[in-house]
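Encode chain A's predicted structure.
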Amino acid sequence: MDKIGKYQIFKKLGEGATSVVYLANDPFAERDVAIKVMAGNVFSEGERGKLARKLFVTEASLAGKLNHPHIVQIYDAAADADPSYIVMEYVAGGTLEPYCTPDKLLPLVDVVEMVFKCSRALDFAYRLGVIHRDLKPANILRGGDSGTDVKISDFGAAITTSSDQTAIAGIGSPAYMSPQQVQDWPLDHRTDIFSLGVVMYQLLTGQLPFQGSNNGSIVHQILNIKPPPPSAMRAGIPAVVDGVVMKALEKSLEDRYASWDDFSFDLAEAFRNEHLAQTRTEIADSEKFNTLRGLSFFRNFNDVQLWEVLRLSDWQRAKPGSVLMREGTTGDNFCILAGGEVKVTKNAKLLNILSAGECFGEMAYLGEEAGTRGADVSTLSEATVITVPTDALRRASDACRHSFDRAFLRILVERLSLANTRLTSV
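Encoded structure for chain A:
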């Protein structure tokens, strides 16, 4: 097959029971894509065909809806073509399956970071009413051969909380199913929390928490057996990570994490654990994301925009007395203080003291061209500083730029109000 629709086929990426996935090129969008092509007669094979069509339509219906940096984007779908196909974002790194064996385990910090990103993506999906139902390493793609960028794929088994259609029972991979799912009970986001807990356990240890020679044996363990903590299978896993995994794997809904926010928070807290902190040299993405969510500057940014900010910004920890901006120099970036305090001075006269959530140097973005700094800015304490290049922000999405503009306008109003108060008190 050389071509399907407008897409030029390059090579086969993988093959399943009902479809083949190809690497292709979209000549109009000028990007590589992955195309899932359904087997020619799969939809006509009785009950199996009905199920295959249901899964295809479910996945195709999400085209353009789940726009999140950690979810594989669906660009196009052709249900009535011969053969039917779905066009998706191409993710070069392959699935997480190779990292689920004891001889190829990823570093602990990478696993925690990847699971954190998955949890935020699944929270985003759930807020749109989507429950995945088939989370497993084969459905999580890695952005490259290194790093912690991941994207969740294959929402064919998903259900939507707003739909009045009856969910098809028995969908999913038994070893990753929650107790509620194996019993065909009504499901909510907590079934995905359990499944992601299974994935995390496997990535940490190279083994599944529930194993058996057949599906019946696996289901029995899911319902009745508590697995050993990951630290029993791999040395060096701290208790805080054990705790996160085991809470995600609680059989009772009341004992499991109640929300994705709770799960994500504990994952981020794991990075503050002394053992994990010693193994990393940079600020973790999970720590950056949670920091952004807590800063007043970003209070009107949604999760997708926060991930965009995270990717276009540079972060640094500065020691007390560090000069961040110098009066009279040209600047092509601005900064937001994520932690600590800085002082703003001009001609050695103190103008202001800024704390977490406040910005400085923003005229470099608001002006037509890179501007001259009007004051010195230096740290009063150890500080975490977010630097945003103006060119990067100008290339950002419209939604992200709009949120920055609103934040700058709010800050301008607050500063003018403060100035008026000071003038009237003189």
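Residues 276 and 338 are 21 Å apart (CA to CA).
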